[in-house]
Amino acid sequence: MNGAEEAARGERQPFVISGPGEYEVKDMVIAGFASGSKWGGEARTNTVYYVHFDGMSILYLGALGDLDLPGDVLEMDSPDVLILPVGGGGALSPAEAQKLAVKLEAKIIIPILYDDKSLKQFLKEAGEEGVKPVDKLTIKPRDVAGKENEVVVLGA
Predict the structure, then answer these.
(1) Contact predicate 105/81, CB 8 Å
(2) Which domain, by its residues, includes 107?
(3) Has residue 83 got a pLDDT over 80?
(4) Is there a contact between 100 and 132 (Cβ–Cβ < 8 Å)?
(5) Is position 3 within any domain?
(6) Total number of domains constituting the chain
(7) CATH number of the domain that 37 lies in?
């Protein structure tokens, strides 16, 4: 740890969430589930994270490599925010990503792990070709009410 990192946290120690398991940090509940990935062209273990806090839920799929999500994830309520890979490096293809997003019935979808081609294809599959990237996204529970599969692209 460098001096700047130490100064930023003061005496507080970070709570590290690493891999499958159940975690509780203050008012946050986090569940990690092992899943498959083919990141970098080789079979690997990926962790899917479900995070619930402030009345909202986020499902982070990481570098998920296929449509086979752990059963426990499929049994959970639909996430308010879904962060999913949409191509590149062995993650889901854009078509698979869109199929999974519809299945999970997320209110807001944030694509990750993409290149220009896979993002363009994902937006086309989602019927969201006109979506422009935003630098920042702030969401409150009332902001997701009534939304259904709305795609938000982060980045410049």
Answers:
(1) no
(2) 19-151
(3) yes
(4) no
(5) no
(6) 1
(7) 3.60.15.10
* Burial class, 120, CB count within 10 angstroms (exposed 0-12 / middle 13-18 / buried 19+): middle
Place of tokens 């946290």: 9
Does 6 fall in a domain? no
The pLDDT of residue 87: 82
Question: With helix as H, strand as E and coil as C, how does 44-103 read?
Answer: EEEEEEEEEECCEEEEECCCCCCCCCCHHHHCCCCCCEEEEECCCCCCCCHHHHHHHHHH
What does the pLDDT look like over 91-120, one tens digit per residue? 788 999 999 999 999 999 999 989 999 999
pLDDT tens, position by position, 15-62: 888 889 999 998 999 999 988 887 777 778 889 999 999 999 999 999
**Has residue 2 been placed in a domain?**
no
